[in-house]
Structure formats: structure tokens, C-alpha cells
Design goal:
Blueprint: E1 4-11, H1 14-22, H2 31-34, H3 37-40, H4 42-49, E2 55-61, H5 75-92, E3 101-102, H6 109-123, E4 127-131, E5 133-134, E6 137-138, H7 145-153, E7 157-161
Parallel strand pairs: 1-2, 3-4, 4-7
Antiparallel strand pairs: 5-6
Helix pairs in contact: 1-5, 5-6, 6-7
């Protein structure tokens, strides 16, 4: 059977959650993912993956991004920790996770560019993820171009993750909060 690659697959390493707490961050948005075995239990995920011959994943961290979890003094550290977790996962299970999507500290785009370079060159990331709404800043703003130029020079991919709040529903004529968590 041909190989199937899931190019955008969220995962919450338990040690990443613990690191958020250790840094004094707020991980309440991660609690839903922690209750889902396929999102947070690697043994469970690997067992499910065995059901599909030739199937592998390119994992990325679950939302939200690091700058929404910890203060600016810790966002680069938390991004690096997440990227190391994913690099370790890929190293341990290369047939299931051939590469990963880097997490970046997007509250500081200079630090984001440096982390993208480190994650791609040193840890084996295929590229990096940003969000469509970066704390109210549009991702087509000039300040983002340093990051885009870095990723382009690395020949790295850019994943763009949709992001809104649950108070911005798709179906605003019939709901005031996003019913299906598409945000």
C-alpha cells in the first residue's frame, strides 16, 4: 500500500503540559486535549496508527501557541522545549513521524526566526506553524516578513493554522459561541 502522510496532526506531549505549569503558565486550554487519548497518549496513538498500513504523521503542537500559555520571558524557552519534544518523538518513531512542524514564539518575530532556523537545521523540522490571527496582528504585516524570508532561505514549509475565538462563530446568524469548536 502506498505511504499516506498526515501533514497536520496535533499532539500534546505530556511533558510539554508539565513545562507550561512549571513556568507558571496557564494550560487550561490544554485540558480538553489531555482528556483525548489520541491527542496526548503516544502509546494509544501508535496503536491506532497500526490500523493503517503505510500511515505516518507530521505532528504539530495543539493550540494555542506558546505566547498565549506563558509570559513573554518564557515563550522562546517553551517553544524550544516543544520542538525538542517533537524532535525526540521523530527520533524514537521515525517510521511513524518522519518530521514535525516547529512551534515558534510569535510574540517576538526575531526570536521566532531564530527558533525556526534552529528547529529546521538542528532538530529536523520540516517547517513551522503560525496562526491566521496572531494576537490581533495580521500575518501579512511587514513584521512577519523576516520570518517568511528565514523559512524561504531554509526551504522550509509554512503551516498556517486558522485561529479565532469561540466568540467569533462561523454561523453568527444562529449562534453566539462556536458550537463545533471550529475556531
Amino acid at each position: 500500500m502506498p505511504k499516506s502522510i498526515d501533514m497536520f496532526n496535533h499532539y500534546l506531549p505530556p511533558e510539554f503540559y508539565d513545562r507550561i505549569i512549571a513556568l507558571g503558565g496557564n494550560a487550561h486550554m490544554m485540558n480538553r486535549a489531555r482528556k483525548m487519548p489520541a491527542m496526548s497518549d503516544i502509546r494509544y496513538r501508535l496503536e491506532k496508527m497500526k490500523e493503517f498500513d503505510g500511515y505516518c504523521q507530521v505532528p504539530c503542537i495543539v493550540s494555542p501557541n506558546v505566547e498565549q500559555l506563558v509570559g513573554p520571558e518564557h515563550s522562546a524557552e517553551l517553544a524550544r522545549f516543544a520542538n525538542q519534544c517533537f524532535s525526540d518523538l521523530c527520533e524514537k518513531y521515525p517510521e511513524r513521524f518522519p518530521t514535525f512542524v516547529a512551534t515558534l514564539p510569535l510574540d517576538d518575530l526575531e526570536k521566532a526566526s531564530k527558533e525556526a532556523e534552529y528547529a529546521v537545521k538542528n532538530l529536523g523540522a520540516a517547517g513551522a506553524q503560525i496562526f491566521t490571527n496572531q494576537n490581533g496582528r495580521p500575518v501579512d504585516g511587514e513584521d512577519f516578513f523576516q520570518l517568511y524570508e528565514t523559512l524561504n532561505a531554509l526551504k522550509a514549509l509554512l503551516w498556517i493554522h486558522p485561529a479565532r475565538t469561540m466568540k467569533q462563530p462561523y454561523y453568527y446568524t444562529v449562534e453566539t459561541e462556536e458550537r463545533y469548536e471550529l475556531w
